[in-house]
Specification:
It contains 7 helices and 20 strands. It is α+β, with helices and mostly antiparallel strands. The chain folds into 3 domains: about 130 residues, no CATH class; about 90 residues, Beta Barrel (Elongation Factor Tu (Ef-tu), domain 3); about 110 residues, hypothetical protein PF0899 fold, CATH 3.30.2320. The strands form 4 sheets. Strands 4, 12, 13, 14, 15, 16, 17 and 20 form an 8-stranded mixed β-sheet that branches. Helix 1 runs parallel beside helix 3 and helix 1 packs across helix 4.
Length: about 375
């Protein structure tokens, strides 16, 4: 009976993972391009990327060889979720595994999909500075930034607030966006390089030089109202940011783009008749995971897992598939004898997962900070 119960426990966890893949959009919108195997919490997995090789005009003269640069990032599976339940009849559990929809197995899979899809939606915080669309702070305020330390002071205009933290900032005199690291008052804070998460040894967080009394913009510090007549244009703007602006390379032309929208905003696209349905995907698995159509190159997924709400603003996340590297596994599945004096068994399982956005892939994400 113990061997049979063990097999049932393993069958339960296997079926949960199988149904998770069927119900969650996480694997659709992320990539799993890592080296290593998920074994337990804090498993470290390598993410490898290579720089491109340049094509040069050939003149017949001796050529100089490029040296491909390999970038290594670490992904840690730092989230653990478990289940633990008792059941009197092992045979009943076995029958549920064979027909999982609508019972304990299916509901467990739905719960895991909900957790992980919600987790994926939190990665709006990792999009590149400058890749957000919302209501900006760009009035007559001026800013002074201290070289190296990144300490800044603003004069007049929009007060500095906690909502600035993590948002992109760009002053006249800069040729790139920086990120607001922290704020200390309504006029002061610190900015940092937006691409330094993997550079723990860097002495100074800011490399933009001194800025004195310049005009500036802080992106998307508050929500932006959208309607059926404006939502399409804003989504086009989101796609344009992924394309790059000539000074910053965009995301690869190949590979799929996804856009995660809450029902209220997805509904605007339907009312505006701007969704393009892909007949080949009408009955595909991704339809069951929320796919509703395409807009400006994005596969649109309707989900109530998007961070925020209509009062505080939805953090709608758009991304190229290269944006988030994601790993997960069911690492443990066990049984134990219950101590209730009956013939039941207790079952428990452990799932671990984690995601990572490499600095050079921040540009593959874009946020729309919207409300209706």
């Amino acid at each position: 009976m113990n061997d049979y119960a063990t097999k049932v426990a393993e069958g339960f966890s296997t079926k949960v993972i199988e149904l998770f893949f069927d119900k969650s959009f996480a694997m659709d919108v992320t990539n799993q391009d890592y080296e290593g195997e998920v074994k337990d919490k804090l498993t470290k997995l390598n993410i490898l990327t290579f720089g491109s090789i340049a094509w040069e005009n050939y003149t017949g003269a001796d050529m100089t060889a490029d040296e491909p640069q390999e970038s290594v990032g670490l992904l840690e599976t730092d989230v653990e979720k478990s289940y633990y339940f008792k059941i009197l009849s092992i045979d009943q559990l076995h029958s549920w595994i064979k027909n999982p929809e609508g019972n304990l197995v299916g509901n467990t899979a739905k719960g895991l999909a909900k957790l992980i899809d919600t987790y994926i939606c939190t990665f709006y915080t990792d999009v590149a500075a400058g890749n957000r669309i919302g209501t900006d702070a760009d009035d007559a305020t001026t800013i002074t930034i201290t070289t190296q330390t990144g300490a800044f002071v603003v004069a007049g205009g929009t007060p500095v607030a906690s909502t600035w933290v993590g948002r992109g900032i760009k002053a006249v005199g800069h040729d790139k966006w920086y990120r607001v690291k922290s704020v200390s008052s309504t006029t002061e804070g610190v900015v940092e390089d937006d691409e330094d998460d993997q550079v723990a040894s860097k002495t100074y967080p800011y490399d933009g030089g001194a800025i004195t009394g310049a005009s500036y913009v802080v992106e998307a510090i508050s929500k932006l109202q959208v309607s059926k007549t404006t939502i399409y244009d804003y989504i086009v703007d989101m796609g344009t940011k992924l394309d790059g602006d000539g000074t910053v390379d965009g995301v690869p032309d190949d590979g799929e783009r996804y856009l995660l929208l809450p029902g209220k905003i997805a509904g605007l696209l339907k009312k505006a008749d701007t969704l393009i349905m892909n007949p080949g995907m009408d009955n595909s698995d991704i339809v069951r995971r929320g796919y509703i159509g395409d807009v400006d190159g994005f596969h649109v997924i309707k989900t109530n897992r998007v961070a925020g709400n209509n009062t505080t603003g939805y953090h709608c996340l758009g991304m190229h598939k290269s944006f988030i590297t994601f790993a997960m596994a069911m690492t443990k599945s066990e049984i134990e004898q219950t101590i209730t004096g009956n013939f039941g068994k207790a079952y428990k399982g452990l799932a671990v997962y984690g995601g990572k956005v490499l600095d050079e892939r921040r540009k593959a994400g874009v946020e729309g900070f919207f409300y209706v």
